[in-house]
Structure prediction request, 686 residues.
Amino acid sequence: MFKKIALAFAFSPRMEALLAETRRIVETFDSELYLIHVGQKTDEAEQKITLAMQTNGLSKQSTTLIWKEGKPVRMILEACRENDVDLLVTGALKKEGFLTYYLGSVARKIIRKSHCSVMTLIDPQVKPSKFSKVVINGTQLTITPMVIERGIQFCQKVNTEQVHILNEIKMYGLQMGTAGEDSEEEIANTRRQLVQNEMDYVKNILDNIPHEDLKVNIKVTGGKWAIELAKFCEKIEADLLIVGDGKRLNFFDRIFPHDLEELLSTLPCNLLLIKR
Amino acid sequence: METLNHKEVINLLLQLAVMLIMARVFAEVARKFKQPAVVGEILAGIIIGPTILGNFFPGIQEYLFASHSMANIALDGFVQIAVVLLLFIAGLEVELQVVWNQGKNALKIAVASMALPIIAGFVVAFAFPEFLGVNINDRIVASTFFGLAISITALAVVARILMDLDLFKTNTGLLIIASAMIVDILGWIVFSVILSLSESGQEGLGVLPTIGLTLLFTFFMLTLGKGIINKTLPWVNKKLAWPGGLLSLSLAICFLAASFTESIGIHAIFGAFIIGVAFGDSEHLTEKAKEILHQFINNIFAPIFFVSIGLKVNFIESFDLGIVGVVVIVGFLTKYFGAYLGGRFAGIKRAESVMVGFGMSTRGSMDIILGLIALENGLITESLFIGLVILALLSSISSGPLMALARKRS
Prediction:
């Protein structure tokens, strides 16, 4: 699924934990590992990373170290493109400060601009815990069938205990508001039908994906999908949220947040953003 | 504080009861024929107004709606509140997320579907003001008002049609919904600008300050205003009675915004609309709360407003076939072709563009409010207003079947 995995790292207190988390993912997917650092290649820096690699059992032979100088986001993404990386792992803060959010932190910028899939870890651990509870975005978008398929494959690989696929009824308030002209029975039928349609949408996708080894729960909500996903992840204390991304986000999307951008101001849990 | 006397209270209560009962009866009849409730409610107003009841039973009509001036003033207050709340609900219906998702295509359709009717409406009204019945002394403003009134799409009505046709969630359906939302936003901004032109020589702030304030107010409400609402709503939902606290406070804020825009020279309804958009876009306004607000306003205040239209105008006395014919033909053709061309321009297939054209031609809400404001401001005559109401009725009735036909052919 992910043949080449890269970790963008800085010499921060979380570097060890990020390396440990990335190593686990690399082992799970039997991938090649690329470590990308944007900064001067000094002896001291090399020593630090060599030590960190040794601590985490990463050999120099199986790991490619990439040193870049320049603007962090641009250089990280350039390195990913040059090496055909499938998955880029980064660390990120759960919540951005007001100004940082609008200006854009490195992690958020990577999520917005990356061409490959991105896994953002908000609380990486030196002893990584499992992705036991995973939530997949099942809202009706053109990329959703692909996101569910790859999300299920990911969950099978990491032995997830419970998968939740969350779908939402678009403009539920407007639809039920206009249905308010009907009788009580008709309104109840409309409500039932709206829920059933969304359940069927996910079920139809799942029918084409082998997932017998997983416990999959389909849940339907009403509201904006990104916000509903965030609320649900926090409620069940999910370990990972898997979403897709169809388009690149810009500054304008931060002024009038919508879709994925609504998740980025406060990440509810670790995030796996799947790109085509 | 002056109060209504015993007889005026009875009269006011009777007025409201008759309006609500007749609205409900005719909304149900409309429903039987698979027509939107608004069609029945407007017909109910025509029946209990001077057109039918006043003609055949003038005594009853006079007792109900013309015997107590104070009760009538109180009823007018109800109608004003109803209009403000209708605009609030119209704002709530706008989902910016849907608009962003549909992006440029929706914008192209919305702009084209508005530009053609506005230009054509303006040209026709400006060229033949006396025939059509627009105020010759305020010719430019009145003509633009007419153009704008025939350029509006009724979002709630088209949403219902799309649901009935099972097209709501299709690409075409969402495109129509998003385009109708953009039409609403653009329509009310253009409306406040036109209104400022009308008042520029009088008591208003002048054209440029009003346009500036309109845009500033819109931007503020959709960014910082929305942020404040986002911070406040969780507290309201958690600490106050639900949905009582939410209902009373959201309506109070709606009235505050409406009074603010009225005081700075933009019409009150613009404030209600924009605050509705800001509320509707808040992540903490649950869909359940939206549904309650919808039903509360749509079933109590909307009927009062739509019935009141029939009370204000005699649809037989002021009926002019020539005016109605021109309004219906110009209104329907320009809106349809505007939306159709917008669709084609956006790269949408011919068959889908035809559906978009018919969908966007749905009227029966904001256009009538615009027409009524123009009538009350002396910009248009009763005959032209009747033309606008009939255009709204005909396009509401015909849009569903026409869309179904277009889908069958595609």
Notes: Chain A touches chain B at residues 140, 169-182, 190, 197, 222-224, 227, 253, 255-256, 258-259, 262 (CB under 8 Å). The radius of gyration of chain A is 20 Å. The first strand of chain A starts at residue 4 and ends at 8. The CA atoms of residues 98 and 238 of chain A lie 25 Å apart.
